[in-house]
Amino acid sequence: MLRNIFLVSLLVYAVCAAHWEIREVDSAEDQYEEISADGMPKQQIFNKCDICKKIMKAVKKKLPPNATPDEIKEKLKNVCDKFKPVSGQCKKLVQKYLRNIIDELMTEDGPNTICTKIHVCKSKPPIKEFILVHDQAHDNF
């Protein structure tokens, strides 16, 4: 019985973690596209993590299934031109982590996971979230 509760808790945690990653990337994208009341883009300061997630999301959308390293490299060359306010930072980031980015984009990982794996974003400790989910699941039984 306890084993089943643990497995259910683990499954719930995995689903929550995936949902959180999608929501976080979408909110970063919304922040990037904010417009002030007069119609002019707001000045935003983006850290490397935000830029990395934006790059990964844009490139993943344009990649065919089973993309080759050369196809990925070509998409990465052009992606930074679309992010005018941060295109210089984008190009530096892509150049610095190119090999790792290509390797990670060949996986099924999401933008947040990729940027964490290449050490551009900090990982968040999952244990606190797991305990919370486990306690909630345990209370429901």
From TrEMBL:
Domain Saposin B-type: from-to ranges: 45-125
SUPFAM superfamilies membership: Saposin
UniProt keyword terms in alphabetical order: Disulfide bond, Glycoprotein, Repeat, Secreted, Signal
Gene Ontology cellular component list: cytoplasm; extracellular region
Top-level lineage group: Eukaryota
Location within or outside the cell: Secreted
Signal peptide stretch: 1-17
Protein name, per record: NK-lysin tandem duplicate 1
Organism listed in the record: Cyprinus carpio
